[in-house]
Amino acid sequence: MTNRDHRHVELSGEEASGRDAEGSTLMPMLVAGLVLIVIGALGVMVFV
């Protein structure tokens, strides 16, 4: 066996997880949650 038969693959944590390093999936959920909280607070203030 030569060195060509065994090749080592080195992956970073982001590559190994398969997650897009540039895109964040939590940010849209955070913004949507904050918008819903603001709408709910305004609704409560209107009726109180």
UniProtKB/TrEMBL annotation:
Q: Where is the composition biased (Basic and acidic residues)?
A: 7-20
What sections of the protein cross the membrane?
A: 26-47
Region of interest called Disordered, as start-end residue ranges on this chain: 1-20
Organism (species):
Aquamicrobium defluvii
Show the taxonomic lineage. Bacteria, Pseudomonadati, Pseudomonadota, Alphaproteobacteria, Hyphomicrobiales
Sorted keywords for this record are: Membrane, Transmembrane, Transmembrane helix
Q: What is this protein called?
A: Uncharacterized protein
